[in-house]
Structure formats: structure tokens, C-alpha cells
DNA sequence: CCCATTACGCTACTCAAGGTATCGATACTA
DNA sequence: TAGTATCGATACCTTGAGTAGCGTAATGGG
């Protein structure tokens, strides 16, 4: 007896992965502003209405795509410092991947003036990482939120201002800076 | 003998300040996304075409408004640490002012996918402060750019994720964190 | 086998907003 | 008075997000 009974009617085709891939390649090729839902649908070989049947808005689609692309944060390391350093470098590497940084910056920007999207972004993308980091680092919520603001804010600001991801030397400086705060509050 | 001869034709009316004020109040009241150029023009008592005669795009208008609202950075303090601390607190206070934070976050977001706007934002808003800080702190360009990414990125990320400006305790932590890097690179 | 149910593709559509074109009126200089 | 450039007003173009309706394809149940 399955826990969730299969709902009646035609089952959904497994196109989520295809749409996510099309979203990232479209953003990479054309930029966030030109990555319209029409174009993403065309790139995925899917009707636009199908996309809106699965995600309520373009921002929700991008957010879901980002959640899928980021995956779980690797919490590896011998101590808290190593864990946090690994998480920062992982975030920097992810944001530097083609399309992800631009998509992230774009959806973040849209969220500023859109409370609904802000809630989606906060609960679906930020909260899981915040909770995982709280437990792994044994730090209070306010401090973890501060770390996230610093790390993600810095990486996105660089991406937005220059159009390029942050170079390795500056990522090193970012890791070093945050670790000092962790070790000597 | 005036240095710049007055150009022929009807002179421009002195409405820049009026439009800037209308822009901030409109953003404050309605949010960045709902602060359309039509509404800003109406709030300023000015025709939309007049706005487009003076600023080439909405982003350029917002940027000019921000440049006007921020004004010059105060570089006061006995030593480099005090100067940088004062600059960070000044930035945090400005971004917390009604409308400014939302406008900043909005135009920043738009700039991510708009190279033209990115150039305007970089040259007209960031560069003056970067240059002034380079001289006041006697630090290389890359380091000052890193500081700007950290400070502005953190403040904007908080503003974008929560819709509220950063609280005083976190601004203190931000100042403390950056000062450590300044004093012990 | 037929039916209810749901998903898909397609076309067409609405709506909002950035940005443009045109034109008459106005303010200033020479 | 002629020339120039601005302002306001109206109308318009274009793009893109999101929706509605319809025929069709799958699936499970009777």
C-alpha cells in the first residue's frame, strides 16, 4: 500500500529535468532578461502553458531550477572552520557556474519588489541551507543569517557589478574574513 | 564671459530635484516594481516624455536619483580604521533610508542583465566612492573593490531577502569584520 | 470497452510597462 | 521677428508575463 495514492488522470511527463536544463542554457546564452518563458519553453521542447501548470511564475521556475542545481550543501570538514570554509567555497563555485550566477542574481533582484517571490526564495532556497548550517556549526540563527548575507551578498554583488564571477584570490579573502569572525566573535 | 555659453532655445526647467523626490516617495509608497515611470512622472507633476528627454532609461533615472541621494561619502576619522568604519556606517544608514534601499536593490537587479545600465551604475555610482576610498585608505583598487562588494552586497542581500534594512547589531558586526581585514590583511 | 480524470500542445488573448513619435505651445537668444 | 529647444499631451509600438479555451493523449476504474 503506497503512502501517497497515485492521483487519477494522465500522469505528468518527466520533463522537469529537461526544463531545468533548458532554463540554465537559455540564461547562459541570452542572459536573464532575455531568457523569457517562451524561449525557455521552446528550448525545452515544451509548451509554455505546461510550464505555468507546474510553476506559478517565472521566479518560481528559476528558484526551483536553482534548488535543483545547487543540491545539498556539502558539510565536510574536521571542525567548524573547515565545514564553513568548504560551504563558502562550494557556494562560490556554484555561483560561478554558467547560468547559475546570472539566474541567482536575476531572481534575487526580482524578489526585492515581489513579496511572494521573496517568500519562495527564502523558504525554498535559503532556509534549508540555513538550518543545515545552524546544526553543523552550532551557531544561533542570527549569526548564520549574517554569514549567508555576507557570503552570498558579496558573491552576487561582484557578479552583478562586473558580470563576472569572483576570482579565486578574492574567494580566498572572503573565506579568511568569515572564518575570523567564526573563530573570534 | 561665462565659461560655458548658454545653449540656444528654451532653457530647461529646474525640475530635477522634484523628479528625484517624486521617485523616492513613489518607490517608498509602492515599491520598486510598482514605481513605473508613468507614476513617477505623475507624482512629480511632469510629463513622461520630459523624463525620457533627461534620462535615457528608467535605470538611469534611478541611478541619478541615488547619486543625488547619497551625495559624497564622509571620509572623517583620525586613522584609516575610523575612516572606513564611518564610511560603512554611512552606507548602511543611507541604504536604510525610505526608498533608497529598495531603489538601490531594484536598479542593481536590473543591472545584472543590462550591460548598459551596469556601466552607468558602475561609473556614476560606484567609481567615485571607490576612488575616494582608495586615496583615503591608501589601499589598492582590488582591495577597495572587495570591501565594496562585501559591504554593499551584505546590506543589499539583507534588504532583498527580508525587505527590511539591517539592524544595528549586525551593522556593528559588519564594521568589526571588515576592520579586522583592514588592519591585518 | 467506455468513461472520468488529468496532462499536454496549441492558439489566441489580456494586461502592464518601458520606450518612442508627433504636434502645438512656450521660453529664451540673437 | 526668426530660430531653437523645451514642455505637455496624446497616441502609439513592442515585449513579456500570465490566462483561457479547445482538441488530444494517457491513465485507472467499472
UniProtKB/TrEMBL annotation, chains A, B:
DNA bind region: 36-55
Residues passing through the membrane, by range: none
Gene3D superfamilies: Tetracycline Repressor, domain 2 (1.10.357.10)
Keywords linked to the UniProt accession: DNA-binding, Transcription, Transcription regulation
Record has Transcription as a keyword: yes
InterPro entries for this protein: DNA-bd_HTH_TetR-type_CS, Homeodomain-like_sf, HTH-type_TetR-like_transc_reg, HTH_TetR, Tet_transcr_reg_TetR-rel_C_sf, TetR_C
Ranges for domain HTH tetR-type: 13-73
Transcription recorded as keyword: yes
Gene Ontology terms, MF aspect: DNA-binding transcription factor activity; transcription cis-regulatory region binding
PANTHER family, per the entry: HTH-TYPE TRANSCRIPTIONAL REGULATOR RUTR, TRANSCRIPTIONAL REGULATORY PROTEIN (PROBABLY TETR-FAMILY)-RELATED
Descriptive protein name: TetR family transcriptional regulator
Record organism: Paractinoplanes toevensis
Amino acid at each position: 500500500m503506497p503512502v501517497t495514492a497515485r492521483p487519477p488522470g494522465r500522469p505528468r511527463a518527466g520533463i522537469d529535468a529537461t526544463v531545468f536544463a533548458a532554463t540554465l542554457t537559455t540564461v547562459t546564452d541570452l542572459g536573464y532578461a532575455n531568457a523569457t518563458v517562451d524561449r525557455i519553453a521552446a528550448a525545452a521542447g515544451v509548451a509554455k502553458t505546461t510550464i505555468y501548470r507546474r510553476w506559478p511564475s517565472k521566479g518560481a521556475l528559476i528558484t526551483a531550477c536553482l534548488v535543483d542545481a545547487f543540491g545539498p550543501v556539502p558539510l565536510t570538514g574536521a571542525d567548524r572552520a573547515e565545514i564553513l570554509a568548504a560551504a563558502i567555497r562550494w557556494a562560490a563555485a556554484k555561483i560561478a557556474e554558467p547560468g547559475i550566477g546570472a539566474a541567482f542574481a536575476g531572481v534575487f533582484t526580482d524578489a526585492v519588489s515581489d513579496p511572494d517571490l521573496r517568500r519562495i526564495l527564502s523558504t525554498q532556497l535559503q532556509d534549508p541551507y540555513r538550518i543545515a548550517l545552524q546544526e553543523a556549526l552550532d551557531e544561533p540563527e542570527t549569526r548564520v543569517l549574517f554569514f549567508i548575507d555576507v557570503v552570498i551578498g558579496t558573491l552576487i554583488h561582484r557578479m552583478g557589478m562586473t558580470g563576472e564571477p569572483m576570482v579565486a584570490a578574492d574567494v580566498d579573502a572572503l573565506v579568511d574574513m568569515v572564518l575570523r569572525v567564526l573563530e573570534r566573535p
